[in-house]
Amino acid sequence: SASAALGELDLSGNMTRQVEQDLPVDTDESHIANVGKLVEDMELKMRNLLQEVYFGKAKDVVGDLRSAGSLSDGARDRETQREIIGSMRR
C-alpha cells in the first residue's frame, strides 16, 4: 500500500534461465509432452528462486528498516537506565 504515512516500496529485477535436455521423441505428441515438462520444471525452479532470493531479501531489508527504530529506542532506554543508576549512586 502507498500512503504518506507508510511510503512506497518498489521491488524489481530480472532473471534469465535456460535448460537443455536430450529426451526421446517418437511422435509429435511426445515432443509436445517433453516441451511441456521442460516448461513446468523451469517454472517451478523459477518460482522457488523468486521465493528464496527476491522475497527473502525484501523481507530482510524491511526487517532491517524496522529494527533501526527499535535500535534507537534501545539506546535511549540504556541511557535512561544509566542516568537512574548514576542518580542512585549520589
UniProtKB/TrEMBL annotation:
PANTHER family tied to this protein: F-ACTIN-CAPPING PROTEIN SUBUNIT BETA, F-ACTIN-CAPPING PROTEIN SUBUNIT BETA ISOFORMS 1 AND 2
Family, as annotated: Belongs to the F-actin-capping protein beta subunit family.
Membrane-spanning segments: none
Cellular component per GO, a single term: F-actin capping protein complex
Annotated region (Disordered), positions in chain: 67-90
Biological-process GO terms, alphabetical: barbed-end actin filament capping; cell morphogenesis
Quaternary structure and interacting proteins, as annotated: Heterodimer of an alpha and a beta subunit.
Pfam families associated with the record: F_actin_cap_B (PF01115)
Keywords tagged on the record: Actin capping, Actin-binding, Cytoplasm, Cytoskeleton
UniProt-recorded name of the protein: F-actin-capping protein subunit beta
Function: F-actin-capping proteins bind in a Ca(2+)-independent manner to the fast growing ends of actin filaments (barbed end) thereby blocking the exchange of subunits at these ends. Unlike other capping proteins (such as gelsolin and severin), these proteins do not sever actin filaments.
GO MF terms, alphabetically ordered: actin filament binding
Keyword Lipid metabolism on entry: no
Subcellular location, record wording: Cytoplasm, Cytoskeleton
